[in-house]
Specification:
alpha+beta; Chitinase A, domain 3; four-stranded antiparallel beta sheet; 12 strands; 30% helix
Amino acid sequence: MRNYTAALLILLISIAGCRKSSKDQATGSAGGSQAGLGSGGSGGSGQGSGSASVEPPREIDSKDILARSETATDVEVKHVLIAWKDLAATYRGRFDPRAAKRSNAEAATLAQDVAAKLKANPDSIDELMQATSEDTASLTGDPYEVRADSPYAPPFKNLALRLKEKEVGIVRTTFGYHVMIRVPPQPPDPLQSADILARPEQPGPYHIQQIMIGWKDTVISRSGQGDPRGVNRTKADADKLVQEVLAKTRATGADFGKIRKEYSEDPQSKDNTVSEVPHDARVQKPFESLKNLVLRLKMDEVGVVKTPLGWHIIKRVKPPPPPKPDPLDSTEILKREPQAKAVKVKHILLGWTEAHAEDPRGVKRDRAALEKLVKDTVAKLVKGDKIEPLMAELSEDTSNAKAGVAYDVAPGSGMVAPFENLSLRLKVNEVGVVKTQFGIHIIKRVE
């Protein structure tokens, strides 16, 4: 499971499960948006529909632009995403109701109309995004920064890197039509800790706590899952609050944990959680400033940086003491050297009264019931039962339980340390158990 802050860096803000974050659904894998642009996963398949299409999609791509051989190395783009009813399965329950009523022909016509308006007035992009785009991440007004190695859907990336400044184009991905414009580079927000960001990296390891402050136009607020304080706050009010909170954290004798509990909209703030940020954490471009700040903070220093999720007031802290092993932990496996540099695992998350996600089963389960359930479930897996039905029946990780999908685990992938440590030490098809702050994980390595 990913720690919330580390997950922001990895940009997979997932709910409980095995990730360090508890907000994965806030942004559709955050940074990737509802459209999944940041994932390169389903979006990376290119021109499909993601489901059996009732009508063949109309071809309205900007083929003249896509045919160019010259590409930029690094661009910033904004876009309007327009989907249609045949793509509902691609969105996994987060389908815009406007798209659900729209045919492909209607979507194509709307995309061409938006493109015409944008060509006539390139400065209207923010207004057009607010009125029409079905990508909740784009509604913040922040551009996507795209490079050749960015994990965006290939058609999206191919168009972005071929656009000239203020040029408009259209491309289709598995998520719909993207009406895109290349915009000039955005200046950094003056509230950011520019002095810290300009210095060389400090020696690691890097452990931090954060105070997150949002406003109504951030990705999380737009998703409908933001903190009520942020959802109703303007950007100007957020800026003012950040300055006030930052001053409090830098005051002599300040209790960062206490200030954090009062002001932060990070759902883990109440637990006074300390996050470790790996130096090699894989970060998408909109979140590079967050990682850059973390790597440059001195011990006990506080800095501030902005991402599509809001303001992050970050303090570098000393590493927490290692947790005591749980009696259910697979201690013999954990003593091994890692068996691989990267693995795929599936897991079943089970909570109890002392450590759980939001599932009512875990909230109510006592320790004795937990231990019996863990032992019975492990026995079934060792006997040869398939893990996917057990995930669907038992797991309290809402991000992957029903679908039975695997997690990719590697150093720097953003998983909490106990989950990562066990996963990397398992042999293929071996089963192990480990405790995290989210509960007990029964993990099976599948690759």
